[in-house]
Amino acid sequence: MALKATIYKAQLALADMDRGIYGDHNVTIARHPSEADERMMIRLLAYALNVPADDKKGHLEFAKDLWDVDEAALWHKDYTDQILHWIDVGQPDDKRLMRAAGRAERVSVYSFASSTPVWWKAIESKLTRAANLVVWQIDAAQSQALAKLAERSMQLQVSVQDGTVWMSTAADSVEITPRRLTAGD
């Protein structure tokens, strides 16, 4: 018998001063049985950092990457089903990233393991043609601290200023500073 996803709900109060985006977002996350809290919270962070200011060009939504290899962790599709932004988390291989770069206008990766520099060094030269790709490194200690905020029902305040993110609950707060590894556009 197949294991089912665990449903998490998050209320995000977003104040992104870098992009001028403010608002409340209620999201539902289907957590795959093999997914750890850390990865799920990185997906939630990626959502907060990439949610569009409005819905005029479609919605940013959680996809089913752990169930279907042809899907991203998150994607922003327009109303014609064109992929505007493909977002992966972890350390996808170069072939997956090149396929994503061909399918979407923009591709972002949020890598959070301590082995990120080794992974990136091994594939960086294979991705030079993917001008629409940006890779971000989240410090492993920061992502592990972020995982501790995970609950089945979450109320999170997310503040972004000068490239630094503060994700807070009523009881705790985590500072995250994503580091850009690529030049992309």
Describe this structure in words.
The chain has 185 residues and is of the alpha/beta class. The protein has one domain (6-180): Restriction endonuclease-like alpha-beta roll fold (Roll), CATH 3.10.640.10. 22% of the residues lie in helices and 38% in strands. It has four helices and eleven strands. The protein has helices at residues 37-50, 94-103, 116-123, 140-147; strands at residues 6-16, 21-31, 59-62, 74-77, 83-89, 104-111, 133-137, 153-161, 164-168, 173-176, 179-180. A six-stranded mixed beta sheet has the order 3-4-5-6-7-11. Strands 2-1-8-9-10 form a five-stranded mixed beta sheet. α1 packs across α4 (140-147). The radius of gyration is 16 Å and the shape is globular. It starts with 5 loop residues before the first strand and ends in a 5-residue tail after the last strand. The relative contact order is 0.18. It comes from Polaromonas eurypsychrophila.
